[in-house]
Amino acid sequence: MKSISSLSKHKRLLAAVWLALLLSPALYSQAWQEIGLDTFRVDSGEKVILATEAGYGAALRSEEQPTFPRRFWIKGDVQLLSDPVETDAFFLFGTKHDSTDFVYAAGYSLQRQAILFGRVDLSDSSAAALEVLARKAVEIIDSRRRYVFKFIFDHQTNELIAEVNGVPMTAPLPLKSRTLNCFGYMVYDGAVRFQALEMGGE
């Protein structure tokens, strides 16, 4: 049997591509902490698909936030895929230190007709749970079943401004905004396509 070093350039390249294809899904999936999901995948457009048949499901991974002096934000479009549309969709953010997680969610609940912000419990490996800390009752209907989320973290006031289709809700953030180092997605009862998180600030 020939060693890899004795193969031609072309064959070495093919071997490297196959090795990358074999390893990358495993490495990618290890980067995420998944709780209570029936479906978690990334489509060809780099959008994240989450689905759960009952209750909350979530996917979370560590990621450093950009450094901005005043505030930073995460944003992205959300496409509801379930029919009838009764799904709740959230972005996750929080702080991970060793084995301790402080994770929060903000998004829109079609079932409750409200923008919600709350603490997420991921301690049960089969299901996530949401404790609502702030809510703004508002009916936001989009015939395309598409919602635009933007969550602004103010470093000076330590407040969260949660915007859904331009409708804002302000709430105190129970942890320091500069310590956020994990981000993800959560869905309740249905399927959602999330645009990959965009980050920015000033």
Give a short synopsis of this structure.
By secondary structure, the chain is mainly beta.
Task: Give a structural overview.
By secondary structure, this protein is mainly β. Helices cover about 10% and strands about 55% of the residues. It contains one helix and 13 strands, in the order H-E-E-E-E-E-E-E-E-E-E-E-E-E. The chain has one helix at about 10-30, and strands spanning about 35, 40, 50-60, 70-80, 90-95, 100-110, 115-120, 130-135, 145-155, 160-165, 165-170, 180-195, 200. Strands 1, 2, 3, 4, 5, 6, 7, 8, 9, 10, 11, 12 and 13 form a 13-stranded antiparallel sheet that branches. A hairpin with a 5-residue loop joins strand 2 (about 40) and strand 3 (about 50-60).
Question: Which short descriptors sum up this protein?
Answer:
202 residues; mainly beta; 13 strands; disordered N terminus
